[in-house]
Amino acid sequence: MKRTYLLGLAAIAAVTLFTTNVSAQEKKTEVGKAIQKTGKAVEKGATAVGNKTAEVAVKGGAKVVDQTYKGKMAPDGSNVYIDGKNRKYYINKKGAKIYLKASQIKTRPVQ
Questions:
Q1: Strand ranges inside 1-111, DSSP E
Q2: Which of 38, 44, 46, 85 could join 15 via S-S bond, C-beta 3.0 to 4.6 A?
Q3: Pairing state between β 106-107 and 67-73
């Protein structure tokens, strides 16, 4: 898990370094504009990869450490976890734990 997290951070650092160099290009020429657009696209992709990496890492840790609240779901339809202090939370698309009130927890439909 640490390895995946460090790999995501290294990718973000590399993209940041790359986009810093790209922004130094002159923007008046067509080549400069194309390079700038490419840098923004790479930055956007790297952000998406970093968010997904964080989400997967936190969900993996939650499945090992915390209990899954069976038969219940978060407002976005994902699993609800219960931590050691009996607090209920779900993990959003950026990998952050979002703690829930009792009124926010929904019953999962039977399939």
A1: 67-73, 79-82, 88-91, 97-99, 106-107
A2: 46
A3: antiparallel
Closest CA to 97 of 52, 51, 50, 55: 55
pTM for the predicted model, two decimal places: 0.62
Q: Where are the domains of the chain?
A: 1-65, 66-111
Range scoring the smallest mean pLDDT among 14-23, 31-40, 53-62, 97-106: 14-23
pLDDT at 17 over 60: no
Tokens 């790999």 belong to residue: 7
- The whole-chain average pLDDT of the chain stands at 81
